[in-house]
C-alpha cells in the first residue's frame, strides 16, 4: 500500500515539474509582458499583424500598422513585443533556412 502511494506521489511530482510548473511560468511571463506594454512599443499580434502601439486604454490598444491606418484591438491579441534582438534573431533564422535549402 505504501509503495503504491509512493509511486503515485512520484508520478504527481513528475507531472508537476514537466507540465504544470512550466505552463504557470509561461502564463506569468505573458501577463508581465502585457502589463508592461507602452505607447510606442513595436508589437506583433497573434494573427501576425505588425505595428506600433499608438495608445492604450484599459484592455484595448490602438495599433498603427501603416500611415493613417490604425486598428483597435484587445491587449491579449499581442503575441510579442518586437525588439532589436528579435529582428536580428529572425533575420539569422531566415538566412539559416536559405543556406539549408541550397
From TrEMBL:
Q: Membrane-spanning regions, if any?
A: 6-23
Which family does the similarity line name? Belongs to the YajC family.
Q: Does the keyword Transport apply?
A: yes
Recorded protein name is Preprotein translocase subunit YajC
Which coarse location class applies to the principal site listed for this UniProt protein? membrane
Signal sequence span is none
Q: Which SMART domains match?
A: YajC
The keyword Protein transport belongs to this UniProt entry's keyword annotation: yes
> From what superkingdom does this record's organism come?
Bacteria
Which ranges form a coiled coil?
none
| Alphabetic keyword roster | Cell membrane, Membrane, Protein transport, Translocation, Transmembrane, Transmembrane helix, Transport
| Species name | Desulfonispora thiosulfatigenes DSM 11270
Where is the protein found, in the record's own terms?
Answer: Cell membrane
Per the UniProt entry, what is one GO biological process?
A: protein transport
